[in-house]
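Tutorial sheet, problem 5. The three components below are modelled jointly, 1036 residues in total.
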Amino acid sequence: MADPFIVAVLAGAVRSGTAVLYAAAGEVITERSGIINLGLEGIMLVGAVSGIAIASITGSPFIGISAAFVGGGLLGLVHAILSIRFQANQIASGIVLTILGGGLSAFFGIAYVGKQINSFSAVKIPFLGDIPFIGSIFFNHDIMVYGTYILIPLLAFLLYKTKLGLAIRAVGEDPDSASAAGIRVSHVRYFATIFGAALAGMGGAYLSLVYAQGWIENMTAGRGLIAVGLVLFAGWDPLKAMFGAYLFGGAQSLELRLQAIGTDISPYILGMIPYLLIIIVFTIGTIRQRKVNTGSPTALGLPYNPNK
Amino acid sequence: MSTVSFLKNIRAALISIAGSLAAICIGLLLVAIFLVAVGRNPVETYIGIFTSAFGGSFAITETFVAATPIMLTALAVAIAGWVGLLNVGAEGQLYLGAIGATMIAITIPNAPSWQMIPAMFVVACLFGAVWSGVPAILRAKFGVNETIVTLLLNYVALLLVEFLIHGPWQDPSSSSWPQTMAFSDAAQLPHLFASRVHPGLFIGIVMAVFFAFLIPMTKPGFIIRVIGGNPKAAAYAHLPVVKYIIISMLVSGAIAAIAGFGQVSAIEGRLRSGISPGYGYTGFLVCWLARHNPLAIIIVSIFVGGLLSGADSLQLSTKLPFATVNIMQGTIFLTLLMFENIIQRFSSATVEAKTPEANI
Amino acid sequence: MNKFIFLAAAFIAWGLQLFYPTVSLAVEQKSQPLKIGFLYVGPIADNGWNYAQELGRQYVEKSLGNKVETIFAENIGENAEAERVMEKMIAQGAKLIFATSFGYLEPVERVAKRHPDIIFMQLSRTTDIKNIGNYFYWQYEPFYLSGIVAGRMTKSNKIGFVASHPIPPIVQSINAFALGAQSVNPKAKVKVVWTNTWVDPPIEVEAAKGLIDTGIDVLAFDQSDSQSIVKTAEDNNVYIIGCYSDVHQFAPKRWLTGACCNWGLFYAKVAQAVINHNWKPGVTHCSLKNDYVKLASFGPAVSPTIKKEIAVAKNKIANETVSIFHGPLKDREGKMRLAKDQKPDLKWLAEMNWFVPGVEGSLSKGNK
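Model answer (structure tokens):
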């Protein structure tokens, strides 16, 4: 059963999926509050470069990751101000963030190209890492991969079991009623947008600090947009986002490894399947809306105007 | 149109122009601070960008070349917007147009121009319409969120292009380079004024003017405005909501597809990856900056085309890294978007078409 | 609207000029230096392909001093954008333009036809247009030498190659690399994985890891950037062969050597020819013979014996006493590709789309 090829593909899936998982998990929280952030690409890039910069200055990857959290959050703040305070179209604002984040990261990143940084190396978790098959796939990674094992259930808990989570979902579903119930809609949305972007920043830092161990401009190469797609695929659920991220990582890891053993399939056709699948699932979900909850926040993308 | 409402419109237009100008000035000021910080003279830099975008006939035509796909995709977004839909899929529809045009160009490579160009045009529009038709039908018949479906179809379109140029359509003579074979001369749109300006620009302008007339002054325009303003009320009034939504989206996709047709036929001469560095997304932004007003779309897309093309001088003259281009554009778009809301508070009435409520 | 803005901006700018007396749009030049434009496909800060080009440009400025002036543009796509940027370079007075990527040929041809007085240098592609010079970098030569090192160092006889796009220059490098390895170690196999991208560090890392999982112990690559893949090799205790730029600092233990470019010498020579008005179109071969390509520094693991062996092999290639591709040469399917006594010419090299025996991995990627 424990075919080394399958293990390698799946371990690679977890590794490749982790960066988009951070971003997608953050976006789940943001979108649940009714704000769609299409600017993840720019935010991940800013996170990636702040992570590298601070890690190379301080010598500590932990401080680097924290800096990425802050850097991503700052860009999230810009999106929040635009879409909450100024009620700008959120998609347009996201496109602006992609452009701006790409520019800022590339400009300030030049000084950090080729900088050597201390990174997290893979640490096998005792006992769990020795479980056949599962151990090598999930428990022989670096600390940021393990971070998602805690973060994702925590986010699910936050979303479904806490007062804050209820508030986030409420302002995403029906901001008027939420407001009537005493929830401060703008505050909750600011929090969800900044927090979600901060997580995306960490995803970027995972790419630069841990995965590639170096910075080069535009290194996310479209992964930010893919993370937005994953949120839809995941039906706005953190746990399903984890599954989706690993599926994305797995497709990439499988394709490269199939080549290494001499098989050849088109990665492009393979790549289309998840998106087509989302559309089908989403359509069925919408048609049977009364029976199945698609998870789509009703007020997603709508500016909230209390004076309306 | 009464005199009062006409004056109101003029007032709104003036406020909106003044607001946009103020926003751009603030954006330029912010970038100027950045430029001073990195040791460049902002005045010199701005003159360089302006000259590079509008100084001389070559610069101006290149600005128009860059503006063409943006104008068309922005119009596509606007058309969907008038009936209250958010079409985030102009990028994908653009690529489908490119695929459609390419399909004709490489399957009947020996056809004469008078057959080739119309066939490419029609198939491109058809492909784009299919790409927007799927979300349109899902939306109109089942209420499926069109924002999400159009966005997702962008990924599929890009992958489809990659598949085709790496696979069945790869040019056997181009040394395994991922691109299709070069189009025959008959399949290349003519250029105008000894430049790279192609008829796509005029299609864009004519369409914009046409819609500027259609939306406020005709019966279908009226129906569109009612549907965009309040689809439920439109349904109660027995207006053909489903029909209008589907037709609008089909037209929207077809117009975005013309942008793709222009890029492969007039600019690249073949299909390859990267024919659009995100024109569909820029078009979305432009449509919102122009408040879905077709005439404003013409102006804003030429402005943005000038920014794109003029920014070359940041690298060539000011010797700043490429990244500065994006910092400048991002900052200006940011201030424009911020002012969007402030302006709307001042001018209650928009000029021609109603901007839809964002309704994902 | 925009016209108003720019008119206003220009007016303000004009006003401000009173305070900036140094601003002068027209700079008087005493002796007309040759203005040279460089078109880069990616960011110059990549520690790889574009960085090597940029070093070449800096070398030109340094060695020719005030006889030249250079301008460059990075991140220029191999599409219509390149055409516009080249036109703007020409508008700025560029008389010589280096188009430093494979896919620039079509835009270069269009611009060159419009400007017969401007000289263009196009990488790795040939054309009939009189004002375009072509240069081929026979990087397969240093790759052959690197292959010898790899063949000597491998214990598992499995060598990995993370490759970008399946185009002839890359296929040449892979074949020469394999031939070099097999010249000293007939059992050596080269496993190729295509990333289909010039730069995407995460994919490169995953491709490298995938190869490492199959048991390779030496890794080579041709991606535009180097850092991520070289560090991955170092961290996984796999020997690494570099490409384009010498980045031994990223793998202090595992660095073997690398197939590098030495563009400065070549660019300076072309620029000098243009200045002397004796530039001619035609093909330049950047090879070990003229030092336009070279081997990177050796890492600590490479023994003096191997270094000596490499020096001998290098001299033979540079003096053309031995040809890397020599007949009879069959591809891995057994088809005769180069007959006995047949010399590999430019056309033969430029059409290489097959692998020599001992190279594993597909070449028909997506070609079905």
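Marking note: The mean pLDDT of chain A is 87. Full credit if you identified this.
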